[in-house]
Specification:
99 residues; 0% strand; rod-shaped; transmembrane helix; transmembrane; membrane
């Protein structure tokens, strides 16, 4: 028979982790793909190579901003788990209900 500690660890490991950046990366990827398409349109079909190259620089910038905001959100969540003055072990213990 498994102990209570082993059961709670097993329940936690079986749950799928919720991704932090799902809501932010979806629109960013869509906007990046659209700007790549727009860049190709201007570069090849309209013949405006300079404008096409300029628009081609947008996707990395859009994805960099999305990544930055995801990291800020993860940092906020981590700060709420490990409030100032507590150790990481105490935060995990309180999160897991071992106190």
């Amino acid at each position: 028979m498994a102990s209570r500690q082993q059961l709670t660890e097993q329940e936690v490991t079986e749950q799928e982790p919720k991704e932090v950046g799902e809501q932010a990366m979806g629109p960013a990827v869509l906007a990046s793909a659209a700007s790549v398409g727009l860049s190709l349109y201007y570069f090849f079909f309209r013949g405006e190579r300079q404008l096409g190259a300029f628009i081609g620089l947008w996707p990395p910038t859009i994805l960099a901003f999305a990544s930055y905001f995801n990291q800020r959100q993860m940092q906020k969540q981590l700060n709420t788990l490990t409030q100032p003055g507590t150790t990481l072990k105490n935060a995990f213990d309180s999160m897991m209900g071992n106190r």
